[in-house]
Records
---
Amino acid sequence: MRHFSVLQHLAGQLNPLCRVLDLDPAVPLDLLAGLLGPHGARSLADPPAWLSDIADDHSPVEFSVAFNDHEPPALRILAEVPGIAPGLGSNTQAAYAFLAANADRFGLATTRLDAIRNLFTAASPTSSAPTWPGSAAPTLTKSAATTPGGSFALWCSLVFRHGRDPEFKVYFNPEVAGISRAPELVEEALGTLGLRDAYRMMLARSIRPGELGRRDRLSFFALDLHDGPQARVKLYVSHYDADPADAARAAAVVPGVDPDEVADFCRSAGGPGPFDRRPLVGSYTLAGGAAQPVGYSVYVPIRDYVDDDLEARDRAAALVAHHGFSPALLHRCVAAVSRRPLGAGVGLIAHVSLRLGPPRPGVTVYLSAEAYDVTPPRSVWVPAA
Ligand code: TRP
């Protein structure tokens, strides 16, 4: 049997996704190849070179489609750039090399990145050894890759909008030096960027009492690499064993956000809770000058709360329609990525998210590449003996 390479598989999804979303595929395909580097040529018959936490099957890339209230949908790629000999340090270096190679072409603004990047460096000479719970340092094992908090140091994301240059973002791991150090790392980074006040008020009101570093974890720190008025920092909090009401409380910190809308979205996507498998995740958009966060998004790991992707797709389509977007377009995006019947697995639709407040409210659906593996559906009918 002939096996595709990693790049062939992913390009075979990206290309039709672009077509469905009316985007020119040339730049996206070029950047996908750049993200993967020499790893793009690896055969999918070989195991992944790095057990990335980007996706359950360790594909290095995840797609998402962002339906926007006031403009056409955008296509996004989240990626862990694999180093030549993959590891946290070499992946990080490869990611910076990828960004440097594209900085001039796309006018990336790296001043803020340069100001904070050393804070979030894995095992930098100045930081002490990582202190992971149960002393399990991030290693190349399946369980480490699925450990809450995950093992990564730097991810990149690319956003493609009709007729515009792509936008670049980076994601740092606040827990890169240990769970307990995450709050201080984030505070220092946000202080450097002039956003400490918004952070303090957000923390004080959105974390359940005594749960910071326990059931409420600082999971991602995202930075836009452009200079415009919309350049943002996003801070993500994962709420383990949470109810829709917990997400609603966390959202209520943000002026103008309707907490009930957040709770309704969680329930429609994942049921009444508690969300005791993968966590509910919330993100706060922090913008220069504002003493409070300006936007909030909630991410529901829908794949843990459905039997199969048929159910996930129907729920996602209902949410998309409820928020005024086209379920038919979602169906076409799912078909572009899927390589199997939707009832034959679970996890193709990994998360669904609701974005509230500026700069772009809407709904996002995350689509797994499933380059390496498909998770079997949860309930399989077996004939009685
Ligand atoms: N795969 C990881 C997870 O599900 C990280 C991740 C990828 C993620 N895309 C995401 C987390 C979207 C939240 C939202 O946790």
Note: The pocket of tryptophan is lined by residues 53-55, 62, 78, 278, 281, 299, 301, 350-351, 366 (CB under 6 Å).
---
Amino acid sequence: MKTVKLIAGLALATITVSTFAAEEVNVYSYRQPRLIEPMLDIFTEDTGIRVNVLYAKKGMLQRLKSEGANTPADLVFTVDIGRLADVKNADLTQAVSSDVLNANIPDSQRDDGGHWYGLTQRARIIVASKDRVNLDDILSYEDLASDKMKGRVCTRSGKHAYMIGLTAMMIAYHGEPKAEIWAAGLKANLARKPQGNDRAQVKAIKEGECDVAVINHYYMFNMLNDPKQVPWAESVNVIFPNQADRGTHMNISGMAMTKYAKNSENALKLMEYLASEKAQKMYSEVNGEYPVQAGVEWSDQLRMWGEFKRDEIDLTEIAANRGTAIKMMDRVAYDN
Ligand code: FE
């Protein structure tokens, strides 16, 4: 077992590895140990390459910036296209070219220049009170801003990456002026000031504060695994938005190789491993997300909800609209 330092006092764990392994790869991860350790353990078993992980909840970008060329990190794991794009835009990643990655990860789910790659997909779903919402009234993200939803919607902060990603998607499809009308309409429909995490929105529906919310799909699984939260999850219907047109907005968790990676060969081996069918299947099972690789078998949980139309827009385009989305949410005073 190798021990690594804490980031700013935050939780830390390490991967159990054979101490005699000569080869290694160093990872900075925003993903929790329980979500990635099973795959990393098998990677080490299969290749003999030790994986050292520094887990953090925040501060990764700052740390990479301040470490510069001295960083020990070879790879970065994080959620959200925004965070992957931020690392790239700070000039802290390098282009990776790999036939395996290109074959296993759809073009829309990776950076055009190879600076980041998606590993799993998360659907931004709508949940609606089973008692109070007619499902025909809320079929799309556009419907969140409709008159029928006046005073009935709850979301988290408009500054959060998940809401920025959603707004960036609306800009990509509707253009800035129409997207802003939507954002203002959504804001006008809020039942309360944006607050809390995704699960807190479902709790608010259970408690009658609002009728409709937008959340990432895996929180439904998380709530069903927590006895206190089961009633929250059971009070709502799950809606995959925009099935009649472009499909449900999907964000990713993903990986990037750092600009100054010292173990780049091993880092590439780990990247390719995580994109393999075997790891993709495991990955999706342990974290409740959808595999990016087409044809990989879904977990029982994911199969329970069945197939749905996913928005296949290139995430590079979503990343490019994020700056505009951040300013837009400010302009509509979303959080005020
Ligand atoms: Fe999340």
Note: The domain at 122-249+310-331 is CATH 3.40.190.10 (D-Maltodextrin-Binding Protein; domain 2).
---
Amino acid sequence: MLKLPKHFMTETENLRNRLNLLLQFGGVVYKETRLDKLLELIAAQVKKALDCDRCTVFILDKKTDELWSKVAQGLQNNEIRMSSHKGIAGEAATLGKTINIADAYKDPKFNQEIDRITGYHTSSMLAVPLKDVAGQIMGVFQVINKNSGRFDSDDEGVLELISSIAASAIENAQLYEKLYKAQLETIYRLALTAEYRDQEDTAVHLKHVSAYTALIARGMGLSETEVENIRNASPLHDIGKVAIPDAILLKPAKLTEEEYTEMKRHTFYGGKMLNDAESDLLAIACQIAECHHEKFDGTGYPAGLKGGQIPLYARIMAVADVFDALCMQRVYKPSWNPEKAGDLIRSESGKAFDPAVVAGFEKVFNEIAAVSRAAEAKDAAPRKKIR
Ligand code: C2E
Ligand code: SIN
Ligand code: SIN
Ligand code: FE
Ligand code: FE
């Protein structure tokens, strides 16, 4: 962002320049809905706009009455917390007013603790409260060490304007994050319901398929979004099993032809349950639930889809599901070790499984085997039978 020294500017130019700055800032920050990334982005933009060394966005945690920040550049664990009444930032939050300080160490209210922790030296500081749409304080915007000495009234004006945009972008991101977390929680609980009757270590199995699908997706070089999509949707793959009678689902022996035919309908039930979902994640979960038993060579069920006709997420799920089914103990089979299970996956490349997915699996096999072994170690203790 461009900011000319103010003696080069007339009032109009100055105004136009600020308007530009705001437009640019708004355009950049509204695109980011992930809170962590947003805070980083805001800090970087503001540092440039105000020509200073550091920008920290403190968010008010109403539960603990603390101000926390994740973007104090140079901090090791990159999170700081302090009482929302402490220091200059605390004063800005408490009074709801802008505070401009030329030399922090000459101000008795300055909280030197944070400099001590970070090894940083604060000189000049400008702190502006962040207010939500209802006018409630939701944090503090703090800039430190103006390169040219101290912050002036122009800087105050610019930071106040920027802070109103930042506040609404942060509020959006917080809402978005809350919704997303609520959605994940619901999905996970729904998935637990489905597997609850089926397996002893339900939570373990769900964590495994999440971890395996995400690892394979990463091994295949898919994007971060795709990795997260399959990580979060995969636990629902067998949701359709809720509709399978106990006599079949829990049978401690090989299924008859007839029983297996009914069992296979869990893909149909799952697809029906998740059909027409509004949310992206549930739409992906639907593809997975419906198609995770399709085979690459067209010999799977329910539809006998082949190759690229099978959604990519379902092709990944198929590998993760079979690998975990093999490594886990089932009522109808003992557990296999990861090497033996890995051999089966490899031998089915191009048959049951997409070779590209098997190649991804191969790349991350050590990590997958480690996840599998970690559960096995916990399993070594005698198992409590729930049925
Ligand atoms: P699941 O136990 O989660 O198994 C998922 C898939 O892993 C199976 O899909 C199959 O492709 C693979 N798999 C599991 N165990 C073995 C194994 O010992 N050898 C080989 N080669 N592959 C294995 P599939 O066959 O479509 O089965 C779907 C679901 O049907 C299974 O989910 C399980 O809940 C149930 N099921 C399948 N066969 C039996 C059985 O003989 N007895 C009982 N009680 N349930 C069965
Ligand atoms: C303060 O606001 O008084 C200290 C906070 C900081 O240095 O970041
Ligand atoms: C199959 O994979 O066709 C039968 C399932 C099993 O091995 O139990
Ligand atoms: Fe299944
Ligand atoms: Fe499964």
Note: Residues 56, 87-89, 110-111, 114-115, 122, 142 surround succinic acid (ligand 2) (CB under 6 Å).
